[in-house]
Amino acid sequence: MTESLDKEKPKEIEKEESKPSKLIAYPQICAVENDDSTGFDIEVFLPGVDKDTVKLKMDSEYIQVSGETDTVKYTGFYSLCCPVEPKKAKTTYKEGLLKIHVPYREIEMHTIDIKID
Q1: 100 vs 51: CA distance, rounded Å
Q2: What is the tens place of the pLDDT at every residue in 47-88?
Q3: pTM
Q4: Is domain 20-103 given the CATH code 2.60.40.790 in the classification?
Q5: What is the distance between the alpha carbons of residues 54 and 30, in angstroms, rounded to a whole number?
Q6: Distance between CA 30 and CA 45 in Å, rounded?
Q7: CA dist 64 to 19, 41, 60, Å?
Q8: Taking the CB of residue 65, how many other CB atoms lie within 10 A of it?
Q9: What is the dihedral of CA 17, 20, 23, 24, to 10 degrees?
Q10: Which residue, of 35, 46, 83, 115, has the greatest Cβ tally within 10 A?
């Protein structure tokens, strides 16, 4: 009975089954305040990923990073605890390690003095 099922299988399904799908994984990330407390030093681990497949997007509160190998698609979206200046970010990528240095954004405080009784 198994033979008859295999023979009746459409060729479209056979093509899909032979094509390996990529594993989707979150990249490992480490974010620490830099030595002079002016911003973040962030490291994103993307083992085996070629530089030309790495994509990085940032705004003042979030970071999104992705990259691909033949078998793995890395993708992650992370929240930063302090606002940063994404236009001033500096990055390097070498041997699967994306390094990002981004300064904190200057906080604008619109405060007023309150009289204490």
Answers
A1: 14
A2: 999 999 999 999 999 999 999 999 999 999 999 988 999 999
A3: 0.73
A4: yes
A5: 17
A6: 9
A7: 28, 15, 12
A8: 22
A9: -80
A10: 46
